[in-house]
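Forgive a beginner's question, but would it be possible to get any protein sequence you like and the tokens describing how it folds?
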Amino acid sequence: MSRKLLRIGTRASQLALWQANWVKSELEERYPGMEVTLTKIKTQGDKILDVPLAMVGGKGLFVKEIEEAMLRGEIDIAVHSMKDVPTIFPEGLALRCITEREDCRDIVILRPGVATWRDLPQGARIGTSALRRKAQLLHLRPDLQMVDIRGNVETRIRKLTEDHLDAVILAAAGMHRLGFTGQIGEYLPVDVSIPAIGQGALGIESRIDDHETNALINFFNHPETDWAVRAERAFLKRLEGGCQVPIACHGTVAGELLTLTGFVSDCDGVRCLKKTVTGPVEQAQQIGSSLGDDLLIQGAGKILNEVYQHETFNVGKEDV
């Protein structure tokens, strides 16, 4: 190992810094003679806090400035939550590694006195800006009132009391990483709330032609998570979806088999399409694309087009 310095680009949120610092510590442990630094980069998505992000572009808002810094040679790698990573990369950059997944489930923080979200009273107010979460819960409980909330993990937790909500939905991974596990009221099974594409996993992006860096970071890649997440992303890419539509997909690997469940819905959870398929892990991306085709045949395209046309300016960004 001859390299003396490796620069990591990251957003400056508390969760993003936790993720980048974890990658930094793993690199320092593996390569004791190498200095690893963090470069904090404010993305447009971090600056826009009072407008639904679907109005100004969606997922790429959380990676664009970081990718531009990498292309300028100011950083060597970028650490992302996989949920934030678009399915198309700028020329010269690629997703090099996908780390082992944390708990991929959604969780609910409940107001005092309530044991489970199913016990919430009629018309209970639920805080979340993720359309896939809204659609899946409304499918089971159409009486619920969904309230858009944005901000980091701590901000969203505070909104439970500040906005007089009955419950707030977040990702388990962020809660665990930031030490808020004790505030979790309930874990939602994946058959109740199918996770977002890539939820719980980290992605490391790098320059394709930076062979030295790529060789150094290859150890981060977790094959089972890689197969599952790449299948999920292929499903998303086939549907040409993003954070502004209710799409969910979750893959699991057992031995040499990948099981993938895809979900598409309208925003109210009335018209829902869901299908599960299984196939060999080496065909992960083909399985994801094929599952997308299956749901398109069942009418997913029409549902998503209507969502794009009528709901684009009423939604926010799921980033935790």
User: Anything to note?
Assistant: Residues 106-194 form a domain with the D-Maltodextrin-Binding Protein; domain 2 fold (CATH 3.40.190.10).
